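ARCHIVE CARD
Drawer: 12
Card no.: 0347
Subject: one protein chain, sequence and derived structure
Cross-reference: see card 0346
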Amino acid sequence: MTDAGGNSPQDIRARHRWLLGLEPIFEGGWFHKGARARSWDVEKHLTAIALFGDVVVDLAAAQKLPAHIELRAYALLRDIDVLLPRGTAVEVTGRSVDNHVKLEAPDIPVDRQTAVLRVISHAIRGDITLRLAGPATPSSSPLNRR
């Protein structure tokens, strides 16, 4: 059985990726000591949940980037940082408590857009930051914080 686009149910399910911030348990914690992959094929639907650890959604390191991406971001006690490649337009909707959603990327004219990221944000006691990917400044590096 296929949908209107000719995709099988397995293909449809495979286009959704969950990114979980569970650092004390999995990411570098008790169960997982390995490094994460840097380049990946981005699915059309992403869900990021930052509960016990921060989540970094690095779209700039993508091998393949769909023209339209939907990200459901839940910053429930920790932070979600979304790194954007140049030419990505961002649409932010959703709810946040006390303005915890920060869009630090410039507006992109329609004729220069390479992708559109629609973010449905839910931030409670955590921050969601969307910014262009690039080298971190020395003052923003976690190693230089006191």
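Annotation on reverse: Residues 2 and 8 are 5 Å apart (CA to CA). Confidence is low (pLDDT under 50) at residues 1-5, 25-35, 137-146.
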